Amino acid sequence: xxxxxxxxxxxxxxxxxxxKVCKMAKKKDKYFLLSLGEKKISPEPLRDxxxxxxxxxxxxxxxxxxxxxxxxxxxxxxxxxxxxxVIRYLKLPFMPASELREVxxxxxxxxxxxxxxxxLIDFHITKEFVDKEERMMEVLLVAAKREAVNxxxxxxxxxxxxxxxxxxxxxxxxxxxSIGEEGGVEKEGVIAxxxxxxxxxNINIIxxxxxxxxxxxxxxxNDFTDAxxxxxxxxxxxxxxxxxxxGGLLLGEEYTTITTTESGRVSYAIESVATRLLDELDRxxxxxxxxxxSYKKNIDRVILxxxxxxxxxxxxxxxxxxGIDVMVARPLQMIDLSKSVGLSADLEKKGCAxxxxxxxxxxxxxxx
Length: 368
Ligand SMILES: Nc1ncnc2c1ncn2[C@@H]1O[C@H](COP(=O)(O)OP(=O)(O)OP(=O)(O)O)[C@@H](O)[C@H]1O
Ligand SMILES: [Mg+2]
Known about the structure:
The protein is of the alpha/beta class. About 35% of the residues lie in helices and about 30% in strands. The strands form three sheets. Strands 3-2-1-4-8 form a five-stranded mixed sheet. It has a five-stranded mixed sheet with strand order 11-10-9-12-13, sandwiched between helices. A three-stranded antiparallel sheet has the order 5-7-6.
């Protein structure tokens, strides 16, 4: 395979609106991108209650995408959406992992809104600390309904695949950042990874290299598109095109044109949604500060990913509103792109939209 003999990882990020694939190889300590691509599942966003139609579209979408990219591997790394699982950070007296394994199901009972018997549970000790002279630990608990995960797996199996690892999209995005991006100043301090997808914006706050807070905001790219659709009276697909080609916020002197020019009106529409998102981010960060007094630290940097992070000037808009540095993720920064087939310059630029998918492929390389 292109002269690279090493491990191969295939990540598939299936959302309600699109499916994305990333295939990577690892040789010695170097990562090579082999394929990166996406396919929309349906031209217009499906309603949340059109789950059955979605399943059929998803199976077809996966098959077509893999065939277009000539991906023959059957073993893939996939993720479920953070809003379909329960994520909790438990503070417990320190105990060895073997003991924790015994007690975690009892602990989980207090934290998950469904029967533990129906749940798939995973956990991970994220940090140890001392509180009032007692040795404590923080445990990241993830629970999903077994039935929901099984029907998700079913989609991949019907597409002829064998998922060998199911992550949660928010933690796959974190993998892209922690494994795929360059180290240095950006990794220090408290980092908020904010992934703005089509329906959901996920916040994952990383403190001392471990996830410490996670929340979904039900605002995303489809809301930006809807605002443009309303402003210009366009069909959804036309509004989406306008957004992806020219979407952004006018700032400074240009701001005075928001009612008179086309780009001004696009900016005006986008600002209405960006303001909602900014308020929700601000609220979540305030909650994070107040809920975690023992770790109380300011967020040093916000890193945006997801397709909507491509909106121009969104970083400046959030940075001005939050008073925190905001930048766009660069998950392909450390990856050798020279072996990738048909990677357009555009896709390379849009790496931030593929953060979750890249994180899945990287995880595949680390664990396979
Ligand atoms: N260049 C661009 N400018 C603005 N928005 C863009 C651009 N490219 C993609 N988007 C938007 O990004 C969104 C898709 O992002 P992403 O692929 O991260 O979402 P998703 O993973 O399908 O959804 P979710 O994570 O919410 O389940 C869409 O709303 C799309 O219109
Ligand atoms: Mg996503």
